[in-house]
Specification:
The complex is a heterodimer. Chain A is an all-beta fold. Chain A has no helices and eleven strands. In chain A, the strands form two sheets. In chain A, strands 2, 4, 5, 6, 9, 10 and 11 form a seven-stranded mixed beta sheet that branches. A four-stranded antiparallel beta sheet of chain A has the order 1-3-8-7, with no helix packed on it. The radius of gyration of chain A is 13 Å and the shape is globular. Chain B has no helices and eleven strands. The chains are: A mainly beta, B mainly beta.
Chain lengths: 114, 111
């Protein structure tokens, strides 16, 4: 079974620039998550999709972050404009459903904002 | 008080030692408990997944959940240098999708 794929692996941008991350979940997984992991911290949920609908985006800074999951498969997360404090690893995860199934993570995109 | 507390370490042990990693939590609604292993520059990898209280064993790894004390543990027997990683505990309530993570404990197993 192929795992969760993410790209790019690394990205360096200047503050106020924009950036986008891409995620392809495990085939058949209905639920997709974007997490932010700041150095030395556990992952923090940004947004959760069930198929192509948003289930929870309460911790997504909507003035600068946006995400979409077209056709209920791939997803993109965008930041515009970026701030220094956005420097983190952005992890995508997927699960069969949202209730009891465990999450499977990709290797993340490491973002550095200078 | 944070919902999930985990000592960040670092924890350094000699090869072959028994390692004990722990988390405490405050939310009594948590029913599902997980341990993830995260190697440097990789995503978290699910190690153990348990429901409610009790023990679960998988090879050299044993997960324990004590809901009365709101305390979970991961034991690693005969630790190997390849076990060197950050270990994250995570938990969520029944029917909930919100997964709450600890900060992670960085483990180094010295040959």
């Amino acid at each position: 079974e192929a795992g969760v794929a993410q790209s790019p692996r690394y990205k360096i941008i200047e503050k106020r620039q924009s950036v986008a991350f891409w995620c392809n979940p495990i085939s058949g997984h209905a639920t997709l998550y974007w997490y932010q992991q700041i150095l030395g911290q556990g992952p923090k949920l940004l947004i959760q999709f069930q198929n192509n609908g948003v289930v929870d985006d309460s911790q997504l800074p909507k003035d600068r972050f946006s995400a979409e999951r077209l056709k209920g498969v791939d997803s993109t997360l965008k930041i515009q404009p970026a701030k220094l404090e956005d420097s983190a690893v952005y992890l995508c995860a997927s699960s069969l459903d949202s209730a009891g199934s465990p999450l499977h993570f990709g290797n993340g995109t490491r973002l550095t904002v200078t | 008080q944070k919902e999930v507390e985990q000592d960040p370490g670092p924890l350094s042990v000699p090869e072959g030692a028994i390692v004990s990693l722990n988390c405490t939590y405050s939310n009594s609604a948590f029913q599902y408990f997980m341990w993830y292993r995260q190697y440097s520059r990789k995503g978290p990898e699910l190690l153990m997944y348990t429901y409610s209280s009790g023990n679960k064993e998988d090879g050299r790894f044993t997960a324990q959940v004590d809901k009365s004390s709101k305390y979970i543990s991961l034991f690693i027997r005969d630790s190997q240098p390849s076990d060197s990683a950050t270990y994250l505990c995570a938990m969520k309530g029944a029917g909930s999708y919100q997964l709450t993570f600890g900060k992670g404990t960085k483990l180094s197993v010295i040959p």
